[in-house]
Amino acid sequence: MTGVSDGGTPALRGDEIGIPGVIEWTMEMLDAADLRPAPLPGVEMTFTLSRLPSPEVNRAMYAAVGARVCWTDRFGWSYADWQAWVDRSELSTWIAMAEGTIAGFFEIEAQPGGDTEIHLVGLTHAFVGRGYGGYLVEQCTRRAWQRGKLWALDAGPATRVWLRTSSLDHPNAMANYRRRGFTVAAQTVVDKPVPDPRLAPWPLPHDPRAVAGDHAADRAADRAADRAADRAADRAADRAADRAADRAADRAGDSAAPGDRTSRRPKEELIT
């Protein structure tokens, strides 16, 4: 898991290309008791609330985490845009540290009516694939439910935590959210405007236009692996059933009457 795709589908501009058939999901959790813990990571992780809003921090984390998925919606933001985004009491930014190293971050917003939105959550590339993603989402969601206590002190308690993700996100993201207790509330298919990567304000490790194809291949590989695992499990179950049937037949033979047992002996043992 590397993050939640930033929401929104603005009109296509001349410096953007469209990725057709992008699936976007709205996921939600309606009760804090539905949150399921993740396995503990192999290192100590801490989560620090950024109490002094900093456009530089949020922009840097957006770049570090988002460049490897498809976070491009904020490419065109000016410094003033970032300043306006972070200078809101309802928004909280948390920095995840692993043994003193920045490992990821998340942005949470307290919204009217008890809704709390997880705008962004993700790991930097060095920490992807090491078992930290589930714990990051768990801790992010715990803090989302604690609005009114940890931040947004006048917002009141949360009654719903929600987020958006899409088929452009990390291929393991959906499974991670489901394991933590999120369910799908809505699904849409859109043509996603993506800025031309040559106009990115920071170097991208790959062309975002290829992300959809990459993830489609990943999902196809996952499905093939699942089918292979299912077939292997079926074969193992068949073998176990055969062995159980053989043992049951043996036990039935052992418990038969003496005359019956004699009739099962090899012919040479019946010669007197």
TrEMBL record:
**Its domain of life?**
Bacteria
Q: Which GO terms describe its molecular function?
A: acyltransferase activity, transferring groups other than amino-acyl groups
Q: What residues does the N-acetyltransferase domain cover?
A: 33-205
Keywords per UniProt: Transferase
- Per the record, which residues fall in region Disordered? 193-272
- Cited CDD domains: NAT_SF
**Entry protein name:** GNAT superfamily N-acetyltransferase
Question: Where are stretches of biased composition, namely Pro residues?
Answer: 196-205
The protein's matches in InterPro entries, at most eight in alphabetical order, are given as: Acyl_CoA_acyltransferase (IPR016181), GNAT_dom (IPR000182)
> Which PROSITE patterns has this protein been placed in?
GNAT
> Whose protein is this, by species?
Actinomadura livida
Basic and acidic residues bias: start-end ranges: 215-253, 261-272
